[in-house]
Amino acid sequence: MDAATMNISEEVRTLGARIEAFVRDKIVPYERDPRRDHHGAPTDELVAELKALGRTEGLLTPHVKADGSHRTQVETAYLLIRSGLSPLGPYGCNTSAPDEGNMYLLGHVGSDAIKERFLRPLLAGEARSAFLMTEPADWQGAGSDPSMMKTTCRRAEDGSGDWIVDGRKTFITGFAGAKVGIVMAKAEEGACMFLVDLPDPAIRIDEVPNTIDSSMPGGHATLTIDGLRVPASQMLGEAGEGFKYAQIRLSPARLSHCMRWLGACIRAHEIATDYACRRLAFGKQLIEHEGVGFMLAENRIDLKQAELMIYWCAQVLDTGDLGTVESSMAKVAVSEALMRIADRCVQVMGGIGVTERTIVEQVFREIRAFRIYDGPTEVHKWSLAKKIRREWREAQEA
């Protein structure tokens, strides 16, 4: 399977070519821009400038059509891989996490009022968003297991119909500076989701730690939610359906991460290849030394396998299946393959590979974090193992 054999229209192919040229020509020069926050992520000022470039080029939010409908996952993959050729590319194209996943969720579940108030600014690149689900493990909260969620929501006692939310959240990507929040909490009916305007005085930032990754504005905040009041009209869907909505978001968003970071590793491999072909060592080009040449060959294999896994999972999602099993498989296979690629790129480049002279060092750090967020590799393997056992039992009983 190759992108050329997929059901991708000429319109999307042309759009993908424009995105690739835009990222390489217009966005890459910004990789040395000094406008960064305390942990190295681009500031909102820089993000706004990058989005303005994308808007001028007509390339903002390319994964959503003019009528507001989302492109297929296969088409999205074709575009997001190219937007990821620079860590800054997703901001210039408005395809970054967590916004892209939140757009998908609101586009599929949100009411007309919610779409107008909360989704429209995201699609236009006028606001950033945050998805408040994960909870601190040291609080005996959800961590990677949302069924353990401790954040609660209850109806206000004044008869207004409003909801009151209390709890804690952690590793909330992009919260600092976000204008739209999706808050997940547990009621008597089950899990619920709410849309809120940010900032809100009832949501306090306790900490924004420095982390190994540095590509996401706002960092990964730990929050305390104390008496957050939300009108009933800002509940997403129905009470008790939050876990179902989470799956609607998480499976495609998990795959979107794979798409963007594949683009980054393609670029890192290009940089490492260029270095190995130019660098002379022990009387010949570095790539002519078997140890180096083999690493680049292994990169080429892993890149292709990652691409195939992404498109295969995208096809499953396009059938209307939630694709939880397939997206778990893709998350494991792609994140681990990309980690090998990034590591080899650093190794091929030697001392240069661990400096800020190229993006290779940053891509290595970002991919290392990618193996954890949106579900660590081990969580997805555990989930797959449970399915294997369940299938075995069903076969025995048949």
From TrEMBL:
| Family matches, as Pfam families | Acyl-CoA_dh_1 (PF00441), Acyl-CoA_dh_M (PF02770), Acyl-CoA_dh_N (PF02771)
What are the required cofactors? FAD
User: Domain Acyl-CoA dehydrogenase/oxidase N-terminal, which positions?
Assistant: 9-126
Spell out the family assignment given in the record's similarity comment.
Answer: Belongs to the acyl-CoA dehydrogenase family.
SUPFAM superfamilies under this entry? Acyl-CoA dehydrogenase C-terminal domain-like (SSF47203), Acyl-CoA dehydrogenase NM domain-like (SSF56645)
Query: Subunit comment for this entry?
Result: Homodimer.
Please identify the protein, giving its name as recorded.
Acyl-CoA dehydrogenase family protein
Q: Which residues form the Acyl-CoA dehydrogenase/oxidase C-terminal domain?
A: 240-387
- Alphabetized Gene3D superfamilies for the sequence: Acyl-CoA dehydrogenase/oxidase, N-terminal domain (1.10.540.10), Butyryl-CoA Dehydrogenase, subunit A, domain 2 (2.40.110.10), Butyryl-CoA Dehydrogenase, subunit A, domain 3 (1.20.140.10)
Looking at the record, the residues that make up the Acyl-CoA oxidase/dehydrogenase middle domain are 130-209
Keyword check for Protein transport, yes or no. Answer: no
